């Protein structure tokens, strides 16, 4: 009897020990240390913050509607060029598909908005200049580090607006006077643009390179430029022919044109890219347009 009882008791002890071990493992898996809990909390906060920023960017179209309702005097068109309306083949094999687009006549600024011009806007409206780029502010150079909303607000203040992406490309390619250059105004990038190989990593005074067929300057270099449209990489597949103004919503806004730190690929008249509207980038500025 005793011989049979000992093995049974031993088995029960082993079973109890194993159950206890499993319980401890489960407890360890379920219990989170204060450090882990804090890390998870920080991660959740960061995710919520990012979601909030993106939602704010996505909702910024209402800002355009509010800004354009403000009554402004007729824009000063002394430094603007009339871009006669016409039909062109927008896009390229790389940034495509190539598709027909028809734009009505409009006006486009000859030059990118300068630091001096943006300073006047800030002084008149009580605003602040954006952070200065590494080379500092120079009045005759394009203003950079501006958000999309900064650009929209400035344009409204002078009675203008940002160009649509279709208007921008049509103008950059020379409109109805286009000679089908690779860059805006030439097949030789150095003739018309400050870019990575000749800029010394800084912007330069506007209008110091040759213009394109319409008399527009710096559309292939110096500073990249905000456009009015939301960005969609597939938009060209469904874009209407008549005066397209981009998707109804999105996360990024369209950015066009090469910059002082771009290469010949970035500076093509057909190259398109994008940025969150809240971004401030030292290579990104803007120019204004106006409907005829």
Keyword list:
single chain, 292 residues, alpha+beta, paralog of FGE (formylglycine-generating enzyme), three-stranded antiparallel β-sheet, 7 helices, 9 strands, 13% strand
Describe it.
By secondary structure, the protein is α+β, with helices and mostly antiparallel strands. The protein is built from 7 helices and 9 strands, in the order αααββββααααβββββ. The chain has helices at 2-30, 34-58, 61-68, 115-125, 148-157, 165-172, 189-192, and strands at residues 80-83, 86-90, 99-103, 106-109, 224-230, 253-256, 272-275, 284-285, 289-291. It has a 4-stranded mixed beta sheet with strand order 7-6-5-8. Helix 3 runs parallel beside helix 5. The radius of gyration is 29 Å and the shape is globular. Mean pLDDT is 82; it is low at 1-18 and 21-71.
Unreliable stretches: 1-18, 21-71
The number of distinct β-strands equals 9
SSE order: HHHEEEEHHHHEEEEE
Output the CATH class name of the largest domain: Alpha Beta
Strand content: 5-15%
Task: Give the total of domains.
Answer: 2
Distance separating the two termini: 110 Å
* CATH H level, superfamily name of the largest domain: paralog of FGE (formylglycine-generating enzyme)
By DSSP (H or I, 4+ residues per run), the number of helices equals: 7
Mean pLDDT: 82
Main sheet: strands, sense, barrel: 4 strands, mixed
**Strand order of the main beta sheet, please?**
7-6-5-8
């Amino acid at each position: 009897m005793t011989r049979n009882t000992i093995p049974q008791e031993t088995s029960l002890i082993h079973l109890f020990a194993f159950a206890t071990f499993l319980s401890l493992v489960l407890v360890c898996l379920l219990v989170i240390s204060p450090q882990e809990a804090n890390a998870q909390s920080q991660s959740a906060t960061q995710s919520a913050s990012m979601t909030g920023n993106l939602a704010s960017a996505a909702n910024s179209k209402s800002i355009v509607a509010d800004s354009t309702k403000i009554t402004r005097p007729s824009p000063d068109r002394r430094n603007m060029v009339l871009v006669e309306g016409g039909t062109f083949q927008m896009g390229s094999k790389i940034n495509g598909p190539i598709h027909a687009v028809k734009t009505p006549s409009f006006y486009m600024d000859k030059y990118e908005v300068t630091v001096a011009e943006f300073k006047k806007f800030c002084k008149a409206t009580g605003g602040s200049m954006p952070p200065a780029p590494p080379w500092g502010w120079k009045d005759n150079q394009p203003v950079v580090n501006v958000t999309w909303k900064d650009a929209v607000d400035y344009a409204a203040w002078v009675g203008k607006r940002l160009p649509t992406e279709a208007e921008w490309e049509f103008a950059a390619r020379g409109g109805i006077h286009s000679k089908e250059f690779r860059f805006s105004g030439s097949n030789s990038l150095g003739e018309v643009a400050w870019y990575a190989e000749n800029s010394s990593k800084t912007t330069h005074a506007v209008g110091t390179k040759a213009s394109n067929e319409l008399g527009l300057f710096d559309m292939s270099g110096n500073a990249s430029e905000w456009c009015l449209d939301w960005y969609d990489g597939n938009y060209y597949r469904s874009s209407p022919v008549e005066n397209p103004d981009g998707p109804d919503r999105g996360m990024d806004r369209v950015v066009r044109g090469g910059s002082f730190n771009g290469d010949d690929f970035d500076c093509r008249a057909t190259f398109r890219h994008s940025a969150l509207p809240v971004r401030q980038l030292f290579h990104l500025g803007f120019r204004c347009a106006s409907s005829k």
